[in-house]
Amino acid sequence: MSTNTSAALNEVKPRTEYPAWFTEDVKEIPTDARELLEQYSNIDPDQVLPHVKEQLRFLSLNLRSHPLYTQLLERLKSGETLLDVGCCFGQDIRKLVVDGAPSENIYGLDIESEFIDLGYEFFRDRETLKSTFLAKDMLDPEAGWEKSNGKMDMIFISSFLHLFDWEGQVKGAQQLTRLLRPKAGSVIVGRQLGSVISGEFPNLQGQGTNFRHDVASFNKLWKQVGDEIGCSWNIEAWLDNSDFLAKNKGNAWSEPNMRMIFFTLIRK
């Protein structure tokens, strides 16, 4: 990040309160993130690393690795809309734009308005990006969703619902469903922390628990949501280990059964 961005981030959350996945003293950044900063933000190659002095894994481009990425991109180009839930800096949004998506068709949602502002500074595009950003709490029914409900053809949600217990995830999934256009083909894709053995796990950022899914419990949750709202889904979910466990071994929130669970939900 630039010096100003780092200072602003410290104002949002003091350094001593950063979560376990905070990374400091960055020596290198992912190739795809470097390409994004060079091609989209027009940062000289030798200035990329100085620009990224600290990161909170905000540069992970997770949507591009989803099997439906190309299809989602083409739908955006044809005029459909996509919402990135828990967008943080909006790095996945910028990647879509670099790959040819009209930025005005993309929306971002994050509870922290400061992260949205920092994204503009980080990517240097406040005057050019036409995407719409919303600073709202997904679990707050009084957050004024009336203008947004039923407007999204596609939703991307990464590392968000796993922050909550079962009931919190039900509420979040219900609101996600309301945001989708109520028609066949509307789609939700994403990934989150899961486990070979599903259940509630201690919440490291406060009291309570968060629920980690296996494929069966994930399907159960979305069937429950569909039954309650009055819709049904074609659901594809899978656990993926790859190098995730090795990379995160030793973190306070890790355990041997944890995996990433990837998913696609297409409304029937």
Order of helices and strands: HHHHEHEHEEHEEEHEHE
Q: Whole-number average pLDDT?
A: 86
**Unreliable segments (pLDDT under 50, ≥5 consecutive)?**
1-9, 12-16, 18-22
> Tell me, what's the shape?
globular
Based on secondary structure, the structural category is: alpha/beta
The termini sit apart by: 43 Å
**SS elements, strand count:** 9
What portion of the residues fall into strands of 2 or more residues?
15-25%
Helix-residue proportion: 25-40%
Largest sheet composition: 7 strands, mixed
Structure annotation, total helices: 9
Spatial strand arrangement across the major sheet:
3-2-1-4-5-9-8
Radius of gyration of CA atoms, rounded to a whole number: 18 Å
Report on this structure.
This protein is of the alpha/beta class. The protein is 32% helix and 20% strand. The chain has a seven-stranded mixed sheet with strand order 3-2-1-4-5-9-8. A two-stranded antiparallel sheet has the order 6-7. Helix 1 runs antiparallel to helix 6 and helix 7 (166-179) crosses helix 8 (215-229). The protein starts with a helix and ends with a strand. Mean pLDDT is 86; it is low at 1-9, 12-16 and 18-22.
Q: Top keywords for this entry?
A:
268 residues; alpha/beta; 7-stranded mixed beta sheet; 9 helices; 20% strand; disordered N terminus
